[in-house]
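User: Predict the structure for this protein chain, please.
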Amino acid sequence: MATQIIMDHTGDTRHDFSVDDAVAVAKAEERFKKLTGRGFTAAVRTGNGETSVIRSFNPAAEETLFFPRIIGG
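Assistant: Here is the predicted structure, written as structure tokens:
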């Protein structure tokens, strides 16, 4: 089971999907493209609480985190 975690001003939203379900994987990829297209940064956990930024959808990633763009003022 893979999870996409979207962080935003309301907290976080989680979307679980099975990598064996082609329809669910397609929806997850669409969500990835939509969020990164809106400026979210996508990252995967690499272990020990560390993350690595990714630029393309990876259905094999156990957790993908999406962080909103930070705008300074």
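The mean pLDDT is 93.
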